[in-house]
Amino acid sequence: MAEGGKPPRILHPQSIPVTGVDTHLAPVPRDRLVVSALRERFATAGDWQPEIPGDGRGWSDRPFSAASVLVPLVVHTHGLTVLLTKRTEHLRDHAGQISFPGGRVEDTDVDAADTALREAEEEVGLRRTHVEVIGQLPAYTTVTHFVVTPVVALVTPPLDLRLDAFEVAEAFEVPLEFLMNPAHHRRHTFAYEGGQRQFLSMPWGDYFIWGATAAMLRNLYGFLAR
After folding, report:
1. Are 194 and 182 in contact (CB under 8 A)?
2. Reduced to 3 states, what is the DSSP secondary structure of residue 82?
3. Lowest mean pLDDT among 12-21, 57-66, 82-91, 132-141
4. N or C: which end of the chain has fewer CB within 10 A?
5. Does residue 18 fall inside a structural domain?
6. Is the bond preceding 158 in cis, omega lying within 30 degrees of 0?
7. HEC profile for 87-125?
């Protein structure tokens, strides 16, 4: 979250100091991280407020755009994983960052889920026949002026992914259980003239999951831990 004036872009998030780790919070119990429990939880979601509704003040005065991302929970016999992508370095927004498949809403899209499914198929070749949408999280507003709806879905292997080389450098999976454990949620504070910005990170091997992606995963944690 940003305060004061417009924050500068964070180009090297790994270098921002860690100011806390949420080891005091309990992980989501394993029995809630199975297919049947996830379906039931989203079927009875009710009204709730996410812990982190957005990044804070934006970098520019450009209009806000609606977007959707797919939060793909891949169903393996050994447990569920989250499919993530690493964006290519030349993109205008969030270049080189870890993200969910997704993008801007188009006029032909029926709803947020349709946007997320279309984008996932375009970016990583994830076919809709392998995807079961089970719910949504509240919209998340990014510092780059996107209002993003996270669409949560179960994905059945084999995936047979085909990456769009222009947008996606690689795709990889992280155990859901790892991401739903706040002991792996690190808090960073970035001070600048006129204010400060805080963000979360969830490093996994060589992958630095941070910013909006980490915040949406944290909101998923809050939803499942309730």
Report:
1. no
2. strand
3. 57-66
4. C
5. no
6. yes
7. ECCCCCCCCCCEECCEEECCCCCCCHHHHHHHHHHHHHC
Reference 214, options 132, 142, 122, 115; nearest CA is 142
Contact present, 109 and 116 (Cβ < 8 Å):
no
Cα–Cα distance measured from residue 81 to residue 31, given in angstroms and rounded to the nearest whole number: 15
Number of domains in the chain: 1
In contact, 217 and 202? CB cutoff 8 Å: yes
Per-residue pLDDT reduced to its tens digit, 118-147: 999 999 999 999 999 999 999 999 988 899
DSSP 174-208: EEHHHHT-GGG-EEEEEEETTEEEEEEE--BTTB-
pTM beyond 0.90:
yes
Q: Is residue 192 part of a domain?
A: no
Helix or strand run (H / E) with residue 223: helix 211-225
DSSP state of 57: S
Query: Which CATH number belongs to the domain containing residue 134 in this structure?
Result: 3.90.79.10
Q: What is the secondary structure of 7-52 as a DSSP string? A: PPP-S-GGGSPEEEE-TTSPPPPGGGSSHHHHHHHHHT--S---S-
Closest to 71 in 3D by CA, of 128, 129, 134: 134
Which range of residues forms the domain containing residue 48? 35-175+211-225
